[in-house]
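== Item description ==
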Amino acid sequence: MNEDGDRSEANVDTVVVSYNTRACLERCLAHLADDDHRVLVVDSASTDGSVELVRERFPKVELVALRSEEHTSELQSPD
């Protein structure tokens, strides 16, 4: 519900964090790409073709491709 009590649809963005998960990522994006909302993939320097998959098969998906694993600690949840 919005602040006026209306049950109109909410705007939803989806963020997928990925590291060498090409097969799983492909299935995930195949389901998300058909929806009418923003999808963002943050890739942590994958070496399995994940970045190329997103660029080639899912052009509407926004991609942040980190160049090295040095930033992955910023994406992980605290212990």
User: Anything to note?
Assistant: The helical segments are 22-32, 50-57, 72-75. The mean pLDDT is 83. The longest strand covers residues 38-44. The CA atoms of residues 34 and 60 lie 10 Å apart.
